[in-house]
Amino acid sequence: MQAQEDYERRLREEMDSKSERELEIERLAELEMQLIERLKQKQMRQRKAYQQLEAVLALGSSTRKSSSKPSSPQVPPQASPPPPQEPTEEEVARAFSMYDTEASGEISTGCIDGLMRDLGVALAPSQLSQAIAQLDSRQCGKVSFGEFLLWWKG
């Protein structure tokens, strides 16, 4: 009789514990959904801010271009074209953000090849491996924009 009562008591305790865990899981799932929604809203605000910044930067550069007067005569057609210019920080940031789909400030090391090509630098496989080794010193498979920009300028 005592064993039966102990068994039923333990069974009730386990059922209660299970119910509590299920309620906790539901609460955590709701919290997770709220956090995901907040993250989506923040990402949307960041995208809008980035688009506004991009528009302002484009407006500023077009204003400078249109207001500047040519100071030298036209270059004759037989002159060689100027060497390609290195991308500006803004252009590097814009290219990086195209690969930063989660707006986390980091990209996967697997994106480095495409990013470099977008910036006009095609790397040989050995160069790409070396670049990734330099960029991903923590060996986490991710590269932050700050790390990339420092490496790019280096």
From TrEMBL:
<dbReference type="InterPro" id="IPR002048">
    <property type="entry name" value="EF_hand_dom"/>
</dbReference>
<dbReference type="InterPro" id="IPR011992">
    <property type="entry name" value="EF-hand-dom_pair"/>
</dbReference>
<protein>
    <recommendedName>
        <fullName>EF-hand domain-containing protein</fullName>
    </recommendedName>
</protein>
<feature type="region of interest" description="Disordered">
    <location>
        <begin position="1"/>
        <end position="22"/>
    </location>
</feature>
<feature type="region of interest" description="Disordered">
    <location>
        <begin position="60"/>
        <end position="92"/>
    </location>
</feature>
<feature type="compositionally biased region" description="Pro residues">
    <location>
        <begin position="73"/>
        <end position="86"/>
    </location>
</feature>
<feature type="compositionally biased region" description="Low complexity">
    <location>
        <begin position="61"/>
        <end position="72"/>
    </location>
</feature>
<feature type="domain" description="EF-hand">
    <location>
        <begin position="87"/>
        <end position="122"/>
    </location>
</feature>
